[in-house]
Here is the input.
Amino acid sequence: MLADALPLVTPFSLYIVPTVRCNFRCNYCAQSLDRDVLAKKYPHMVSDNGFITMELFRKVLVQAKSFPSRFKMVSIFGQGEPLLHPDLPEMVAEVRDAGIAERIEFITNGSLLTPDLSRRLIDAGLTNIRVSLQGLNSKKYHEICGVELDFEKIKENIAYYYAYGREKDARIFVKIMDVALEENEEEMFYSLFDSISDRMYIERVKPVYDGIKYEEALSNITMDRYGVLHTPRKVCPLPFYMLNVWPDGDVSPCDAIYKPYILGNCNSTTLLEMWRSGGFRSFLAQNLRYGKNSIPICTPCCAPDDVSHPADVLDDDAKRILPIFDVNFR
Here is the structure.
């Protein structure tokens, strides 16, 4: 249970965002918003060139070595498509060589995954890749994402990654959003990828992005994206176990698009200093005391009800662990 492990001397997860750009415009995602609307609601998504530099990336890795233990996971992923970054295989290799992670992974839409790139990523030390599908045919991709592509080619490239990855102990997970499936296509999804992936699952679209109009049926926040029913959650557990580095060096305590709280910038403050800072402690204490809706920028975010696993829920333990972050955390 997360509550019993707090406070963490080292976050479980470190996210390093390679880019905020995406080559898809999925209709349930903020990337589908008009650029002016996106700039107004999420200015950090359009405020720079959108790609992290290798200089900054290496600075982050140096800082990450200062934590007392390794991260359980380093994810080179954020609110864009990581395969757009030309240096992604090099990034994976440098995370591996830094020795800071038990697991190295990212999520991709898979459209740019080729056999050559698969070999480079796996040889660089990628342990897990998650491919997020947007349909089971080219027509559905056009409907959901507004792109023209060959679905059969995506499936072939996934099969290649799976086969090559088995030789190198690299895993590939395939997932699909429920809105990308037609009626009675669930079994087809499992059948298509049963022999060419290590794990498959169907996710349920939730009202993740402010500015996107979701059908009322998709706004049920008492069921997470994995289909688990629960009571509404007040305390967000994400900032208690992760750090997220944006392409400009800003660091937030979760991977949400909202940038709910800026701990600092890697160009002027180290990750360890941010993780141990009094300001961050106060942010966590406010979350525990009043719930995430007491933090205005966090109010529209449904992450606690969408992606939090039952073992991470802190609501019932909030009063018990509050003194840790008010007084004793160092």
In short: The CA atoms of residues 42 and 258 lie 7 Å apart. The two ends are 21 Å apart (CA to CA). Strands lie at 13-16, 73-75, 104-108, 128-133, 171-177, 199-203, 242-245, 250-252, 264-265. The mean pLDDT is 91.
